[in-house]
Amino acid sequence: MRRLSPLLLLPFLVAACDHGPVNPPDEPARPIQSPEALQEIQAPGPSSLANRGAKSFVGRWAASAAWCANPQGDRRPIEITPLRFEGYENSCAIDRITEAASGYELALTCVAEGQTQRERVFVAASGDMLTLVYLDRGQDATTRLGRCPGSPVPPKEDTPLEKALKR
After folding, report:
1. Residue 153 φ then ψ, to 5°
2. Taking CA 142 as the corner, what is the angle to CA 140 and CA 145, rounded to the nearest 5 degrees?
3. Nearest-10 Cα torsion for 47, 49, 53, 58
4. What's the pTM?
């Protein structure tokens, strides 16, 4: 019996691996129509994790609880959303949120009294207290505010111990 050369078997082996025609670059394949592929893609943006990112500092914050109940003039709460930072005499767009060691740095573009300016604010929420540090204003630029009643509160995230106890 004669042995066939392995080179003669090569075309048959390659043909066995063929998975059908390949689409040329000018004719892309049709999109995949699976449930996973059809899920909505979330746009990149502020974090939405519990007790982290925007959810930790979103809400109405004031230096006094009375300001929450009866806002007047300069005695009104600051309102923060994932996209806006609204105060008494300024209205700011949040351009960027950067996670820092113990909070977040917000890059703002603000309009106040007809003037546009850029400003950076460090925010750190701890329970119902918010610390704001206006990074571009000099030394005495720290403010502590309390969460106004009815303001959104992020859901409590379980600690590793609480997660283990639930199992």
Report:
1. -120, 125
2. 145
3. 110
4. 0.60
Indicate the burial class of 114 (C-beta count within 10 angstroms; 0-12, 13-18, 19 or more).
exposed
- Residue identified by tokens 């403010």 is 143
**11 phi and psi, to 5 degrees?**
-60, -35
Distances (CA, A) of 21 to 11, 15, 18, 24, 27: 17, 12, 8, 9, 12
Start-to-end CA span in the chain (Å): 67
pLDDT tens digits, the chain, 167 residues: what are they? 566 555 555 555 555 555 556 666 666 666 666 565 555 544 444 444 333 556 788 999 999 888 888 777 788 899 998 899 998 888 999 999 988 878 899 999 999 888 999 999 999 998 899 999 999 987 778 999 999 998 877 766 666 666 667 66
- β 104-112/115-126 pair status: antiparallel
Per the structure block, which two tokens stand in for 163? 């997660």
